[in-house]
Each structure stands twice: as C-alpha cells, then as structure tokens.
Model the fold of this input.
Amino acid sequence: MARLAVWRGLLGAAGLLLALEGVFRYWRRRRPVREALFFPVQLTCTEELLSPGLRCCCPLPHTDSALLRLMRRLLGARSSLELCLFTFSSPPLARAVLLLHRRGVPVRVITDSDYMAASGSQIGALRREGIVVRHSQTSGFMHHKFAVIDKTILITGSMNWTMQAIQVNRENILITDDRACVTAYLEEFERLWEEYDPSTYDFFPEGLEATK
Ligand SMILES: [Zn+2]
Done:
C-alpha cells in the first residue's frame, strides 16, 4: 500500500515536471521580441557570424556589438526578408542578406532610385545574385529604413545600412514582433512594391506624352 502511494507520488511529480516544461516552452515561444540598438559602434569582426564554424584570427575585436546583434536577427530569417532601405552600402550587412538568399530565403528589396547607384552601394551586388530590387520612380526620396523578417519581426529606425551610419553617426534601431506594427510596415512594403512595379513605369510624367 505504501509502495503504491510512493509510485503515485513519483508519477504525480513527473507529470508536474512535464507540465512545467510545457509552460516554460510556451513562455519562451511567446516571449515578445523587444530590442533597441544604438550606433555608432566600434568595428568588430563579423566573419565568425557569416561563416559558421570559422575560428577567426583577424586583428579586429571579436566582441558582441549592436551590428552583430542586428546581423544575428537578419540571419535568423527562415521564410522571408523584406528590405526597404534608402541607402544600402554596408558590406557585412549585404553579405548577410546574400547568405540568406543563397539559403533559399525569398528576399525582396525596395530602395531609392537616386542612391542605389551611389558609390559603394550594394544594390548592384544583390541584383547580380538574383535578388529582386524595386526602386522609387517619383520625386521625393524613398527614405524608409526598415526590414521585416519572416513577416513577424520588424526592424526599424533612423539608420541607413551604411558603414558611415554604423561607425560614425548617432543612430537607433528598434526590433519588435508587435503584431500591429509588423502588419502596418508589411502593408506599406506591399503598397510600395506595387507602386514601384517596373511594368507600370510612367516614363512621361507631368503630362508629357510620348511622340508617336
Ligand atoms: Zn575576425
């Protein structure tokens, strides 16, 4: 009789542990993403992040930084990446995006027509690898600086993806999985994606007509 009670007690404890583990896993899954990053940052090595398994011996510091945290978020993309960036010239961030593209993650990019050909721009490199890029066609800069990962995580803030912004400027980035914010930014992305569809380019704006 006593032995039965002991077994019952053990089974009860095991059940309780399993239930607690389930609650913990649910909590971890449901834990909201809220992260603020601030720049400038000292240049640190990004090789080990871009080449998993590599033990890098370069002279740069191998410490964590806001840039590495941003890159880690990006590299966590599994099903999609939307980028809406005024200027994009940072080589390590471009390598992270290309890595995702090569892994088969669908990547779409919207950028500004004036700045996509600026010195050091990575837009050409992305296009050469097969990433679809659409750009603004109307006056007024396409001045957004945001990204959406897996349609669930928004990255937004003041920072253009340039080495000047990362290493010199005072910049901020907010990372959130707040559903209302993610949805609003995704809708803005889709709206611009359609607006900048090259098949609907207006080559003769402001009332000018093509001569027939
Ligand atoms: Zn290194």
Observations:
- The pocket of zinc ion is lined by residues 45, 47, 56, 58, 60, 62 (CB under 6 Å).
- The helical segments are 2-30, 47-50, 66-75, 91-102, 123-128, 163-167, 179-195.
